[in-house]
Amino acid sequence: MSDHNDVIPDVERGYEENTIDLKLILYFTGGLTLLIVITFGLMWILQYWVLEDRWNSADEENRLPMALSAEERLPPEPRLQSAPGFGVDSPDGRIDLQLREPQAEYRELLKIWEEEWENGQKDERTGTVITLSIDEAKKQVLANGLIKARGEEESKAAMQEAGTFYSSSSSGRLASEVRR
């Protein structure tokens, strides 16, 4: 039979006696804490030794062939100055300007342009000259005689032709009107 039938209530007291054993509560709390710590440790080991490797290998295997890279996801130029990817393409590579002052883009471009004006521009793959410096270009034009002056009669005819235009009275056949 059960033991609870043997308990005789004390009628003179206004409450029942508390028979909770504190030692059992402490055992239960300690066991529960130990179980939580063991479970946390096992999950940590599972995550870093098993699941992380599977996640990385599955990510490489299931990579989408049409997925855009980080550079391809950026909006086209020109971008806002504080936007990711804002910068200038220079001969030495991309210059990142996203957290600099607004004039930084102009200053960097001015450096690139001044270098090209002084030294010219060459194709890195073939080594051929694409553009010359201004002084070098002047020397080559004068040396080759590429500029030919017009004669006096040709220049007068060109000046007269530049001053006339086609009017509606000639139906577009003759340049009859003179500009004033």
Task: Give a description of the structure.
- The structure is a single chain.
- The chain has 180 residues and is of the alpha+beta class.
- Among the domains are: 87-144, no CATH class; 150-180, no CATH class.
- It has helices at residues 22-61, 104-119, 134-144, 152-163; strands at residues 87-90, 93-96, 121-122, 129-131, 164-166, 175-178.
- A two-stranded antiparallel ribbon has the order 1-2.
- A hairpin with an 8-residue loop joins strand 5 and strand 6 (175-178).
Order of helices and strands: HEEHEEHHEE
Radius of gyration, in angstroms, nearest whole number: 44 Å
Strands, count: 6
In round numbers, the mean pLDDT is: 79
Q: Span between N and C termini?
A: 131 Å
Name the overall outline: elongated
Low-confidence stretches: none
Which key phrases capture this entry?
elongated; 180 residues; two-stranded antiparallel ribbon; single chain; two-stranded antiparallel sheet; alpha+beta
What topology emerges from the helices and strands here?
Layout (H helix, E strand, L loop, with lengths): L21 H40 L25 E4 L2 E4 L7 H16 L1 E2 L6 E3 L2 H11 L7 H12 E3 L8 E4 L2
Antiparallel strand pairs: 1-2, 3-4, 5-6
Question: Quick recap of the structure?
Answer:
The chain contains 4 helices and 6 strands, in the order αββαββααββ. The protein has 180 residues and is of the alpha+beta class.
